[in-house]
């Protein structure tokens, strides 16, 4: 008998209790990829508005597909605004990931945007998040505050020394270490990889001290060991673009022999 996967609405609880979860970034404006990932058994997806042409309409459809496939939909907003976060949450996202969180003040503003109680999230009950008004406003707000995950990305040099303060902000549920941007910031420095590993270790320690979970993107099986050592419990494996390129390259090589 196949073991039942936890419901997508338990994503925040599973993250906070450091259960191992696997996800991927989504950049293609389509729903079919999400359905396929659901049949495979992925726990969550990050719908990437920052680096992909995903407008509100397609994001809404992708969130719908993820929920229907029992995958927790997280949206990485392209730019932090109350409106961008509200749009994703009303469409039914189970979490928000915000890039380039460099100050405590920005972290506080992000947390407020994600919450009703003690926050500033605008209310709308007739939404997918509110099950189209079927559960009532009070229950909807309490349920959303309990289930929505707020993730801050640490990916700038100036954020590293503030990572502990950012992680300690009430309402910030987790940190994601953006090693891609951190590596790019060193340009052609031959020691960039070592420096980013040291930064990652420092940010991971800050997350542990603040008592918040860590998300990371391992780039290989060897890197996975490092990521686990740092304490990351939620792993993002490549992206839909990456999966297609990898599989297509392997197939071409296999059949070209």
Description:
This protein has an eight-stranded parallel beta barrel, surrounded by five helices. It is 47% helix and 15% strand. Helix 2 links the parallel strand 1 and strand 2. The chain is globular, with a radius of gyration of 18 Å. The protein has one domain: Phosphoenolpyruvate-binding domains (TIM Barrel), CATH 3.20.20. The model has no long low-confidence stretch (mean pLDDT 96). The chain starts with 10 loop residues before the first helix and ends with a helix. The relative contact order is 0.13. It has twelve helices and eight strands. With 257 residues, it is an alpha/beta fold.
In short:
The chain has 257 residues and is α/β, with parallel strands linked by helices. The chain is built from twelve helices and eight strands.
